[in-house]
Specification:
Largest sheet: 12 strands, mixed
Strand order of the largest sheet: 7-8-9-10-11-1-2-3-4-5-6-12
Radius of gyration: 18 Å
Shape: globular
CATH topology: outer membrane lipoprotein receptor (LolB), chain A
Helix content: 10-25%
Order of helices and strands: HHEEEEEEHEEEEEE
Length: 216
Amino acid sequence: MKKIFTGLMIMIAGFFSVAAQPLKGMGKSDPEAKKILDAVSSKFKTLKTVQGKFSLKIENAAGKVLGVKTGNVFMKGNKYRISVTGQEIFSDGSNIWTLDKASKEVTISKIDPSANSLTPQKLFTNFYDKDFLYKLNGTTKSLSEIELTPIDKTKPFFKILLYVDKNSISTTKLFEKTGNKYTYSTTSLTANTIVPDATFIFDAKKYPGVEVVDLR
C-alpha cells in the first residue's frame, strides 16, 4: 500500500506492538482505574455485533489541526471492517484486505494466529493489563478520565487519556513524543444488530478496476 491506514491504525499499532511485562520500580496501577477498565472490557465481550461511527482529529505540537477524518466500524466476533474517506480495511478473522481507493489497490494478507495482531476489538477489551500503568484522574458525573502510561518507553507516545462513559470508551487521546496528538471519538455505537458475514469480506465486483495484491 502507498499509504498507512490513517492515524487510527497508528494508534492501534502503538497500543499493541510487543506486549511488555511490568518492570521493577515502574510502580503499580490504580485499582479504581482497573475496575472501570474491567467493566468496559466485560461489557464489550457480551456484545454479539457492534456498529459505530467515529471521528479522528490529528493536531501538531502547536495545536494546529492537521486533519480530521470520519468513518464507520463494524465488528462481529473476531471479524471487523473499518471505513474512512478513501480507505477501507476488511477482516473475516482469517484474512485482511486493505483497500486504498485513490490508488485503486487492495492488499490481501493472512492473519498469523501466533502474532499479536491489531484489531479494533482490542480497543475495547483488556489490552491495558500488560502494556500500561494506569490511574484514574477523576470522574465528573458519569465521565471518568483514565491516564495510561506505556511500560515500554521506546514507544513513540508517552501518554494516552481514555474517557469512559457508562462502561464505554467515548474518546481516546494519544500524545506522541513529537508533540502530535490524536483524538479518536466515538460518535455513535449500536450493539447486537444483524450484520451479515459478507460485510467483512472484500468483494472485487463492487470495486471495478481495483488491482489486487495478494501477499498470502
